[in-house]
Amino acid sequence: MAEHRGEGQRSGMMTGMSGGMFGGMGGGQMQQKQPMLTSALKAITAATAGGSMLVLSGLTLAGTVIALTVATPLLVIFSPVLVPAAIAVALLAAGFVTSGGLGVAALSVFSWMYKYLTGKHPPGADQLELAKARLASKARDIKESAQHRMDQVQSS
User: Fold this and answer.
1) Which residues of the chain are modeled with pLDDT < 50?
2) How many whole angstroms separate alpha carbon 132 and alpha carbon 33?
3) Which pLDDT value is given to residue 2?
4) pTM of the entire structure?
5) Do 20 and 30 form a contact (C-beta atoms < 8 A)?
6) CA 115 – CA 16 distance, rounded (Å)
7) Whole-number pLDDT of residue 62
Protein backbone atom coordinates (compact mmCIF):
# COMPACT_ATOMS: atom_id res chain seq x y z
CA MET A 1 0.00 0.00 0.00
CA ALA A 2 2.71 2.42 0.95
CA GLU A 3 4.50 1.66 -2.28
CA HIS A 4 1.34 2.36 -4.25
CA ARG A 5 0.78 5.67 -2.44
CA GLY A 6 4.43 6.70 -3.06
CA GLU A 7 4.07 6.07 -6.76
CA GLY A 8 0.92 8.17 -6.87
CA GLN A 9 2.64 11.01 -5.07
CA ARG A 10 5.60 10.80 -7.43
CA SER A 11 3.36 10.85 -10.51
CA GLY A 12 1.42 13.77 -9.06
CA MET A 13 4.64 15.60 -8.40
CA MET A 14 5.87 14.89 -11.89
CA THR A 15 2.69 16.17 -13.49
CA GLY A 16 2.81 19.18 -11.21
CA MET A 17 6.38 19.87 -12.31
CA SER A 18 5.56 19.43 -15.98
CA GLY A 19 2.97 22.15 -15.90
CA GLY A 20 -0.22 20.20 -15.11
CA MET A 21 -2.69 22.52 -13.40
CA PHE A 22 -4.81 19.83 -11.75
CA GLY A 23 -2.15 18.01 -9.74
CA GLY A 24 -2.55 14.28 -10.34
CA MET A 25 -5.94 14.38 -12.09
CA GLY A 26 -5.88 14.82 -15.85
CA GLY A 27 -2.20 15.71 -15.98
CA GLY A 28 -1.45 12.93 -18.43
CA GLN A 29 -3.84 14.45 -20.96
CA MET A 30 -2.13 17.84 -20.68
CA GLN A 31 1.26 16.22 -21.21
CA GLN A 32 -0.01 14.58 -24.38
CA LYS A 33 -1.57 17.81 -25.72
CA GLN A 34 1.53 19.94 -25.14
CA PRO A 35 3.91 17.87 -27.33
CA MET A 36 1.24 17.72 -30.03
CA LEU A 37 0.80 21.50 -29.87
CA THR A 38 4.57 22.03 -29.88
CA SER A 39 5.09 19.75 -32.86
CA ALA A 40 2.23 21.46 -34.70
CA LEU A 41 3.78 24.87 -34.08
CA LYS A 42 7.13 23.57 -35.26
CA ALA A 43 5.56 22.20 -38.44
CA ILE A 44 3.71 25.46 -39.13
CA THR A 45 6.90 27.50 -38.56
CA ALA A 46 8.94 25.18 -40.80
CA ALA A 47 6.30 25.30 -43.54
CA THR A 48 6.15 29.10 -43.38
CA ALA A 49 9.93 29.47 -43.49
CA GLY A 50 10.29 26.88 -46.23
CA GLY A 51 7.50 28.44 -48.29
CA SER A 52 8.96 31.91 -48.03
CA MET A 53 12.40 30.59 -49.00
CA LEU A 54 10.84 28.82 -51.98
CA VAL A 55 9.09 32.01 -53.07
CA LEU A 56 12.33 34.00 -52.76
CA SER A 57 14.17 31.34 -54.73
CA GLY A 58 11.57 31.51 -57.49
CA LEU A 59 11.73 35.31 -57.60
CA THR A 60 15.52 35.18 -57.81
CA LEU A 61 15.36 32.67 -60.65
CA ALA A 62 12.82 34.77 -62.52
CA GLY A 63 14.93 37.91 -62.05
CA THR A 64 18.03 36.11 -63.29
CA VAL A 65 16.25 34.84 -66.40
CA ILE A 66 14.86 38.32 -67.16
CA ALA A 67 18.26 39.96 -66.63
CA LEU A 68 19.96 37.38 -68.86
CA THR A 69 17.30 37.89 -71.55
CA VAL A 70 17.85 41.65 -71.49
CA ALA A 71 21.67 41.43 -71.26
CA THR A 72 22.26 38.79 -73.96
CA PRO A 73 21.80 41.13 -76.95
CA LEU A 74 24.05 43.70 -75.29
CA LEU A 75 26.73 41.08 -74.64
CA VAL A 76 26.55 39.91 -78.27
CA ILE A 77 26.80 43.47 -79.60
CA PHE A 78 29.67 44.48 -77.29
CA SER A 79 31.52 41.14 -77.19
CA PRO A 80 34.28 42.27 -79.61
CA VAL A 81 35.13 44.94 -77.04
CA LEU A 82 34.29 43.14 -73.79
CA VAL A 83 36.21 39.89 -74.37
CA PRO A 84 39.60 41.52 -75.07
CA ALA A 85 38.97 43.99 -72.23
CA ALA A 86 38.22 41.12 -69.84
CA ILE A 87 41.37 39.30 -70.96
CA ALA A 88 43.44 42.46 -70.46
CA VAL A 89 41.98 43.05 -67.00
CA ALA A 90 42.64 39.41 -66.04
CA LEU A 91 46.25 39.65 -67.24
CA LEU A 92 46.77 42.92 -65.38
CA ALA A 93 45.34 41.46 -62.19
CA ALA A 94 47.50 38.33 -62.53
CA GLY A 95 50.57 40.50 -63.10
CA PHE A 96 49.92 42.65 -60.04
CA VAL A 97 49.26 39.61 -57.84
CA THR A 98 52.40 37.87 -59.09
CA SER A 99 54.48 41.01 -58.65
CA GLY A 100 53.21 41.50 -55.12
CA GLY A 101 53.86 37.87 -54.21
CA LEU A 102 57.39 37.94 -55.56
CA GLY A 103 58.03 41.25 -53.78
CA VAL A 104 56.93 39.78 -50.45
CA ALA A 105 59.12 36.72 -51.07
CA ALA A 106 62.13 38.92 -51.85
CA LEU A 107 61.60 41.00 -48.71
CA SER A 108 61.38 37.88 -46.56
CA VAL A 109 64.61 36.53 -48.11
CA PHE A 110 66.39 39.84 -47.48
CA SER A 111 65.11 39.86 -43.91
CA TRP A 112 66.38 36.30 -43.34
CA MET A 113 69.78 37.16 -44.86
CA TYR A 114 70.07 40.26 -42.64
CA LYS A 115 69.32 38.21 -39.52
CA TYR A 116 71.80 35.53 -40.59
CA LEU A 117 74.60 37.98 -41.40
CA THR A 118 74.13 40.00 -38.20
CA GLY A 119 74.60 36.87 -36.09
CA LYS A 120 71.01 36.27 -35.11
CA HIS A 121 69.81 32.71 -35.54
CA PRO A 122 66.95 32.66 -38.11
CA PRO A 123 65.03 29.44 -38.80
CA GLY A 124 66.99 27.15 -41.10
CA ALA A 125 70.43 28.54 -40.23
CA ASP A 126 71.53 25.15 -38.84
CA GLN A 127 70.60 23.42 -42.08
CA LEU A 128 72.51 26.05 -44.04
CA GLU A 129 75.61 25.51 -41.91
CA LEU A 130 75.32 21.74 -42.35
CA ALA A 131 74.96 22.08 -46.13
CA LYS A 132 77.96 24.44 -46.23
CA ALA A 133 80.07 21.93 -44.29
CA ARG A 134 79.04 19.05 -46.55
CA LEU A 135 79.79 21.10 -49.67
CA ALA A 136 83.23 22.07 -48.34
CA SER A 137 83.97 18.42 -47.47
CA LYS A 138 82.99 17.22 -50.96
CA ALA A 139 85.03 19.98 -52.58
CA ARG A 140 88.06 18.95 -50.49
CA ASP A 141 87.55 15.27 -51.47
CA ILE A 142 87.31 16.16 -55.17
CA LYS A 143 90.43 18.34 -54.94
CA GLU A 144 92.40 15.54 -53.28
CA SER A 145 91.17 13.00 -55.83
CA ALA A 146 92.10 15.29 -58.72
CA GLN A 147 95.53 15.94 -57.18
CA HIS A 148 96.09 12.19 -56.73
CA ARG A 149 95.18 11.49 -60.39
CA MET A 150 97.43 14.32 -61.60
CA ASP A 151 100.30 12.80 -59.63
CA GLN A 152 99.58 9.37 -61.16
CA VAL A 153 99.53 10.81 -64.70
CA GLN A 154 102.78 12.72 -64.16
CA SER A 155 104.56 9.69 -62.71
CA SER A 156 103.61 7.44 -65.63
Assistant:
1) 1-24
2) 82
3) 45
4) 0.42
5) yes
6) 75
7) 93
